Amino acid sequence: KIIINNPILFDASCSGIQHLSALTRELDTAIQTNLVSLPNSEDIPNDFYNYACNIVQKEIDIYDNLNISKIKLNRKLIKKSVMTIPYNITQYGVIQQMIDNFTEVYILNKKVYQVSADLTKDNNCIYLSKSEVRELGILVYNCLIDNIPSLRDLSKYLDDIISILLKLNLPVVWITPAGLKISLSTIEYEKTRTRSSLIPYGKPVTISIPTKKLNVKKIKSSFMPNLIHSLDASNIHLLCNNLKDSNIPLYTIHDCFATTPNKMILVENKVKTSLIEIYFKDRNYL
Hints:
Elements: E1 8-11, H1 15-24, H2 27-32, H3 48-61, H4 66-69, H5 75-84, H6 91-100, E2 103-107, E3 110-115, E4 126-128, H7 130-146, H8 149-167, E5 172-175, E6 181-184, E7 187-194, E8 205-214, H9 216-243, E9 251-253, E10 256-259, H10 264-279
Antiparallel strand pairs: 1-10, 2-3, 3-4, 5-6, 7-8, 9-10
C-alpha cells in the first residue's frame, strides 16, 4: 500500500543472442535466453552464460593439453565472449578476452600467463604459454559458434549480401522495426602529408582526405553490432509508444528497463509485447 518512488530495474537475458534466436527461430537458444518458456517448466529463468560455460567446460575436460584441461571456467570468465558473439567477434578477439582474465608474468625471462587458483580444478595456479592461451581462445570460440549453428548461417547470409552491395560500392541500408532508416556508409580516407607555406619551419601535418570509396573492412565488421543495437533501440521505441498514454515513469539503458516497483509488472509485459511486434506479430523481421 506504500508508494515507493525509487526505481527498480530489470534487463534482458543476453539480448544480442535473444535477437538472433528470434531472427532465426532457433528454439534451443530461445529457451536458454528466456525468449521462450516450455510448458510446465519451473518459473526459474535460464542463464545463457552458465549454459555456454558448461558447454565449453565439457570440451576443456577432454582436451588433450594437460594445462588447459586443468582449467575450471566460471560465468565471469566466459561472459564477455558470449556477449560479443552476436557482434561478429573473431577468434583473435576471444583470445584477447582470455588474456585479459589472466596475469602476465615472466618465468626464466619467458612471458607466460598465470591462471589464478579459483580458475583451476585443483585450486593451484597454473601457467599457460602464449600458444596455449591461443588454443584456449580458439576452443572457446569454436564451442560458442558450433553450438549456435543458426548464428553461423545468418552471419554468412548477411555477409554475402553485404559483399554484393560493396562490390557495387553501395551503402548497406536497412529500416528498423520502428521505422528508422539506417545507412552504413563508412568511407575510406587517403592520408596526405603537407606543410604550410606560411610557416617555413613548421612541422608537416598529416591530413585525412575522404574518398568516394566505401571502407569494406569497417562496414563488414561493424554491421552486426549496429544491427543488434538498432533492434534494441526499436524495442525501446515501440515500448515508449505502447506506454505513451499510461503516464508510467520509465528510463532505459540499452536492454535495461527501470520504473517504480508498482508499475514494473506492466512495463515488463509491454517490453514483451514490443518484442512480439518486432518478430512474431505479422512476419519475421528478417
